[in-house]
Structure formats: C-alpha cells, structure tokens
Structure prediction request, 313 residues.
Amino acid sequence: MRFTTPIPVREIARHTGAQLIGNTELDATGINEIHKVETGDITFVDREKYYSKSLTSAATIILIDKDVACPPGKALLICKQPFAAYDRIVRMHRPYAPLISSIDISAQVHPTATIEPGVIIGRHVQIGAGSHIEANVVIRDYCLIGERVIIQSGAIIGSDAFYFKKEDGRYQKWTSCGRVIIHDDVYIGACSTIQRGVSGDTVIGRGTKIDCQGHVAHGVVIGEDCLIAAQAAVAGKTIIGNRCTLYGQAGVAQNLVFGDDVTVFAQSGIGDNLESGKSYYGSPAIEARQRLKEIALLKKLPEMFNAIRGLVK
Prediction:
C-alpha cells in the first residue's frame, strides 16, 4: 500500500509506542509484507529466523520484536507485537468504512461505461471507457478496472484477503489494504471472486478471460491473454505468465510461478512451479504426456496381472 503523503518515522514510532533506533529522519512512503516491499516501505518481523530476510530487504523501516543492529540508512521500530503495530498502521491510513450508497461519491466511472442496476461500487474505484458491469456485481474499495472490461452478474471484485496470522492458537485477521487491478479487455464470469492483496495488488492482465465461479486469491498476478475455465482457483501470491490456460476445476497452490504458454488440464492439482510451453495433468500434476502414458498402462494392469499369474502357475 502506498501512503497518500510520506509519513515521518518519528510519527509512526509515536503512534505505535515503538522504540526508534537508526535513522530518525526517514519518511515512510508505503507499507508491505516482506515479499512485496520496496524502498520507503515499512514491514514487520516477529520471528528470529526471518530477521535477516527482513533487515536486508528493500524495506526502509522494520517493525521488529528485538533490539538488533540496525542496517545503515534504515530505521528499526522495536515493539513487543510487531504484527499488531503493522495492522494498526494499516487501519490508521486505510480505515474501514461501510458503504452507505450503491455507488460511492469518490468512484470515477467513465461516461461510456455501462453500469446495470444493483451494482455496488466502493470508495476510490475507477472504471474505464466502454466497460460493462452487469447487475449485482460488487466492486470494493480502491479497485481499478480498465477499458472494455466485462464483469458478469454476481461477481465480487476486491473482497478481503483470506489471510490470518496464528497467535497463541488463534487466528488473527490481517487488515487487507491492497487493491485489485483489472487491465483492459478482461472478461470476468458470473459469480467469480477476486480478492484484494493483503498489502500489494492482485492483478489480472490485459485480455485475460475468467469463466464463471473462478477464484483468484490475494496478491495473485495473472498475465495477458490467459483463459481460466469454470471453477478453477488460484491461491495467494502465485504468478501466472502470459497466454496460460487453466481448464475447469484446476487448483493451483500458493506462492508458485508459471511460465508463459502453460496449459493445465481439468481438475488438475498444481503444487510446483510450471515451465513455459508445457501441458500438465493430474493431482499432483505432472507433464500431461507422461500422465497419459501412466493412465494407458494402468488400463493394461488387469491383463498384465493375469499374464503374470499364469506364468507363476
């Protein structure tokens, strides 16, 4: 998430009650999880095994639960509960506000866009020229919709990330402050759901088509001209290349990377990164050609078994 204006690190320390060490003159320009951070960002760490990754990341300001050496040019905010402080900062600068009208006054809808009855459009949403939003679509706060985008009835764009932190045996909800960005010429089928990022963006690339009841989780990036068939689901932070095809009910695990021109057959379960230009099938999925050979051999097992049993006699 980008802040509207830079925030002095001293102000952040005051609001969170954290001890400030390092460069006390810094300004924060955003806040992000560790895998999304950029220069100027705040991030947090509360497990020692991740200290090095956080301290050496691009983040400029780190919320941390232990007094450690501060890297040159950075600032540390030391507090007992870095996650709680992180969440407090998010809620302070992007507070939740319930919708009080069908189309929020801050939304920017191009005059040539078609908005059917029953559509809900949240705060600071942008919808581009020639887009068609069908009845009963919900577009939550800060989503950006490009030009000539079609979103069919019942789709929900920008629902909160399904993302929780486990503390003392209980799950604490992260406040979602990311966005959904849908580029030009995208098609979203009926009753599909696209979640906002936890702190970054969920992105649907130009020309991609998603069938009915598709699910795209928080922080997913889908490239251009992809086809996602009905009931396929992509878990959080996975990156899919250009011109990829996921057939019906394919399931993709979190934190994966697909190359370009990948095809995933129907009902396949993907748990590993996929190479460009290849097809995959099965659960767990392997290259389709190899899986089809295995299926062909399986069909021959009864005949092979009977032949072996005859030899034993």
